[in-house]
Amino acid sequence: GPLSERPLLEVRLGELHTWISTCSFSPQGLLGAVQRACSSYCAKYIHVKQGGPAGISMLLAGYCLLSYGWNYQHFSKTSYFRSS
Amino acid sequence: VLHTTRPLHTTQQSLAPVPPLPEKGGEVRHGLIPEEFFQFLYPKTGVTGPYMLGTGLLLYLLSKEIYVVNHETAAAACILTVIVYAIKKFGADVAAFADKLNEEKVATALAMKNEAMQALQTAIEEEKKEQWRAEGRSYLFDAKRNNIAMLLETNYRERLLMVYNEVKKRLDYQVAMQTLKRQKEQDHMIQWVEKNVIQSITPQQQKESIAKCILDLKALSKSAHAAV
């Protein structure tokens, strides 16, 4: 289909630049993008008849990684091998 | 997990009934990495590609101290072990329980739907029966007409009888009056005649009649003697 209508996973690497230029960066556009991402994730992993631990565990793992990234300064300062 | 936040009517043509939920979610390997990642790397690196990538990445992060090993690492390891053990041991039971709850909900909804359909079916049959009954209107009206005709007839005959009785009473009265009058006249006449006759019999005439009777009796006795 047309370039601007395709979801991110189906865009090839070479077309990434043009794809970014087509998407709208207004608040409504960003909000819509966030909502679409949420709804697609929910529809795929949470709103199923037999979902396993995968749906929530991926969210928790992402949260772990994000919090590690936010607190990296603190980690590196209080490391046992204080070399950095 | 609740299904209440699923967006409905996302397309212009909203489908009703709402399509059912998919049976299984997206495939996830080891509970953390979606299957699409493995499929993405399969053409270039085969089956072991992602695992090699994971190992290399892990060693890189550890060696470069991008991932710092401290007391929280040990805590995380213990927690992860417990979580994995719990999921492996109780996962199936919890899933069965959730499935049972879901099935009960679906069963109640289905029962309601069936009940509603049954009720409507019986209503349809009742309606058909009522329609059949309504066809018998003509018989009902005929019976009513017959009833009314009979009432009228009985009423008419009652009145006829009453009229006859009244007329007969009056005629009887007249007849009785006439007979009474005649009787009274007769009695009166007889009395009058007797009274007059008795008045007219003077004592002289009485003696003469008695003497005549005696003479007649003598004559009779003589003839009777002669006959004997």
Automatic annotation (TrEMBL), chain A:
GO cellular component: mitochondrial membrane; proton-transporting ATP synthase complex
Chief location: mitochondrion
Record keywords, A-Z: ATP synthesis, CF(0), Hydrogen ion transport, Ion transport, Membrane, Mitochondrion, Transport
Pfam families: WRW
GO biological process assignments: proton motive force-driven mitochondrial ATP synthesis
Compartment(s) where it occurs, according to its Swiss-Prot or TrEMBL record: Mitochondrion membrane
Molecular functions (GO terms): proton-transporting ATP synthase activity, rotational mechanism
Assigned protein family: Belongs to the ATPase F chain family.
Name of this chain's protein: ATPK synthase
Organism per entry: Prunella himalayana
From TrEMBL, chain B:
InterPro entries: ATP_synth_Bsub_B/MI25, ATP_synth_F0_suB
GO terms of molecular function: proton-transporting ATP synthase activity, rotational mechanism
Keywords from the named record: CF(0), Hydrogen ion transport, Ion transport, Membrane, Mitochondrion, Mitochondrion inner membrane, Transport
UniProt keyword Ion transport, yes or no: yes
Record keyword DNA damage present: no
Annotated localization: Mitochondrion; Mitochondrion inner membrane
A Pfam family that the UniProt record links to this protein: Mt_ATP-synt_B
GO cellular component: mitochondrial inner membrane; proton-transporting ATP synthase complex
Residue span of region Disordered: 1-22
SUPFAM superfamilies: ATP synthase B chain-like
Superkingdom field: Eukaryota
Quaternary structure and partners: F-type ATPases have 2 components, CF(1) - the catalytic core - and CF(0) - the membrane proton channel. CF(1) and CF(0) have multiple subunits.
PANTHER family: ATP SYNTHASE F(0) COMPLEX SUBUNIT B1, MITOCHONDRIAL, MITOCHONDRIAL ATP SYNTHASE B CHAIN
Family the UniProt entry places it in: Belongs to the eukaryotic ATPase B chain family.
Function of the molecule: Subunit b, of the mitochondrial membrane ATP synthase complex (F(1)F(0) ATP synthase or Complex V) that produces ATP from ADP in the presence of a proton gradient across the membrane which is generated by electron transport complexes of the respiratory chain. ATP synthase complex consist of a soluble F(1) head domain - the catalytic core - and a membrane F(1) domain - the membrane proton channel. These two domains are linked by a central stalk rotating inside the F(1) region and a stationary peripheral stalk.
Descriptive protein name: ATP synthase subunit b
